[in-house]
Amino acid sequence: MKITPISQVLGTPAATPEEAVLYFNAKGIYETDVADVAYDIRKGLGGFTIVDVRDTQSYEEAHLPGALSIPSGRIDSSTPSFPTDNVLVVYCWGPACNGATKAAARLAAMGYQVKEMLGGIEYWRQEGGTLEGTLKEKAPLYYSIPPM
């Protein structure tokens, strides 16, 4: 018996062009990336505040220039307020970290405009972004699970 392979790419049909336009435009509403943030910083463009949602120690060791520290798990009604006309750009460790996603949801529920920076500090560093903090480039690149 011969088994005919089925395409993994086309096993789920592609969206229509009209659906794709809506989807990809919507993604841009929720996300930004390292290159876009770096460009705006380099050009002195404002209108957004960068928020590092990793733990306090990680922030102190290395963070994006001008970023504020608000650990994701501590975002609640006591979180300092921001101007509501200012977009918050949140980031975490990297693509495998969902802290920025959780923080963005909490901040949006509090009435803020939010975008998640794709790639987090991992890609910021890989793409040569400058850092502030006590260790800067010598800080750990990834989160390490504490021993049990």
Unreliably modeled segments? none
Largest sheet composition: 5 strands, parallel
Report strand %. Answer: 5-15%
User: Helix-strand pattern, N to C?
Assistant: HEHEHEEHEH
Structural class: alpha/beta
CA-to-CA gap between the ends?
Answer: 51 Å
Outline = globular
What is the helix fraction of residues, given as a range?
A: 25-40%
The strands making up the biggest β-sheet line up spatially as 1-5-4-2-3
Number of strands: 5
Please describe what this structure looks like:
The chain has 148 residues and is an alpha/beta fold. It contains 5 helices and 5 strands, in the order H-E-H-E-H-E-E-H-E-H. The chain has a 5-stranded parallel beta sheet with strand order 1-5-4-2-3. Helix 3 (56-61) links the parallel strand 2 and strand 3. The protein is globular. The termini are far apart. The mean pLDDT is 93.
Task: Reconstruct the topology from this structure.
Elements: H1 17-30, E1 31-33, H2 34-43, E2 48-52, H3 56-61, E3 68-69, E4 87-91, H4 99-109, E5 114-118, H5 120-126
Parallel strand pairs: 1-5, 2-3, 2-4, 4-5
Which features does this protein show?
single chain, 148 residues, alpha/beta, 5 helices, 5 strands, 14% strand, globular
Kindly summarize this structure in a few lines.
This protein has five helices and five strands. It is α/β, with parallel strands linked by helices.
